[in-house]
Amino acid sequence: MSFSADAAFDLLRRAHAQDRLAHAYLLAGPRGSGKRKLAEYLARLVTESNEGLAHPDVHTAEPESKSRRLRIDQTRALERELQMRSLMGKRKVAIIFEADRMTAEAANGFLKTLEEPPNHSLLLLTSEQPESLPETILSRCITVPLSRESAEVLSPAQCELLEGVAALFRERERGIPVVYRLVRTFASLLQQARERITDENETELKSEEAHYRQTTESSWLDDREDHYKALTESRYVRERSLLGETLVAWWADVLRQQQGAAGLDLPDYAAQTAQLARTLVAHDALKRLAALEEMRENLGRNIKEDLAIEVGFLRAFGE
Predict the structure, then answer these.
(1) What is the CATH T-level fold of the domain 5-145, as seen in this structure?
(2) Do the beta carbons of residue 28 and residue 69 sit within 8 Å?
(3) pLDDT digits over 295-313, tens only?
(4) Phi and psi of 309, rounded to 5°?
(5) What is the pLDDT of residues 168-178, one digit of tens each?
């Protein structure tokens, strides 16, 4: 059974009023399920303040590096803050957003804090993919399953990519040529995204140029060209990341189907992911999910894009 963020908060609020709030919770659910909102609600509750995440006794960590991983130095910083005396005399709160993005080192390091939490502390972890967390972490948290608050609308590019994935698994044999067909679909979507973003930003630049040509120094144009060049790359990386997350959501749904978990990221493809859940063992699905995560990390490290994608797709979608 899963809850809306508001319903879950109501249950936890009553537990707090009865002094029965646990020391660690895992707020688990798909995108749009209100995990961050619930974490902030709980922070306000136990600190008895409306400051939420800005409260001096509330400390957070989330993926920040190019590889979108949570590093051990971030979890250690949280642990140090929890050991300090509360500034306001209330409960201290530590929140790890996207906890499944912790490196193995960070997860192992934070385990001791979960096992021996400081007095008057509340530990909150959020995750779209709790299946990816180590069992040692899961067993030391009370999981609060959340349902999506509103249906997520997929972009045309996401739908085309997912149709390509579904078509691949309809093939009797998934040899290299079949996987490369999906690679070409992915590459084509990326190229279309780059062209669209470039055209939109060039249009914006021309509009600004026409408006400010008579009122600014000549160096202005060079500055704005640099600005839009950086903006184009930033938007492209976000688009690439979204498509990568869509593939991760596919395999995460396969794992959820294997475990009978509610709240699929891609409910329109439930039949396809259910079929895969029946034919693959959990270990195989996890390996394929890990291959996509590694691909995303490699792209963040500026490894040659086409090579990182080819390797990632062969590992995630090949035989």
Answers:
(1) Rossmann fold (3.40.50)
(2) no
(3) 988 887 778 999 999 999 9
(4) -70, -45
(5) 999 877 788 99
